Amino acid sequence: MQEELVIAQLIGSCRQTESRRMVDSLQKNWQASIRKNEERIERYVRVRGRMELADSAFLQTANWSKAMLAANQHYLNKQIVPMPCPAEYNFYFTHDVLLTDLGAVVFDSQRVKNDLLYLRSLTQSDSVLP
């Protein structure tokens, strides 16, 4: 019988008074959360802008790219927002979104609309994006 050891590192922030409750919740729910996220990403790849390409390598690249778009979402300012760059930061790169959406518009116009509406929500009174 082979033994298995799983090591999970939690990286995040919360109030100290919330930490015990947060850790307890994560211990109970993290595997289910990961599974749901993987299923969401797979569904996105299958459903959004189905592509029929003769070149299997190109099709694999297209599907991988769609999976990256689905996966790169971050919690920022109390909401989940698209983050095209697979990094953790606490600010938003307008340039990243606009360039990403040049490709996404081919297969996910709703994402592009949502991204642009999010950018508009950040616009300040002088019409300048932060």
**Overall residue-averaged pLDDT value:** 83
SS elements, strand count: 2
Q: Based on helices, strands and strand pairing, what is the structural class?
A: mainly alpha
What's the total helix number?
Answer: 4
Shape: flat
How are the elements arranged and paired?
Layout: H1 19-47, H2 56-71, E1 73-76, E2 79-82, H3 94-104, H4 109-122
Antiparallel strand pairs: 1-2
Helix pairs in contact: 1-2, 3-4
Structure in words:
- The protein is flat, with a radius of gyration of 18 Å.
- It is 54% helix and 6% strand.
- It has helices at 19-47, 56-71, 94-104, 109-122, and strands at 73-76, 79-82.
- The model has no long low-confidence stretch (mean pLDDT 83).
- It has one domain.
- The chain is mainly alpha-helical and 130 residues long.
Summarize the structure.
This protein has 130 residues and is mainly alpha-helical. Helix content is 54%, strand content 6%.
Question: Characteristics of this structure?
Answer:
130 residues, mainly alpha, 4 helices, two-stranded antiparallel sheet
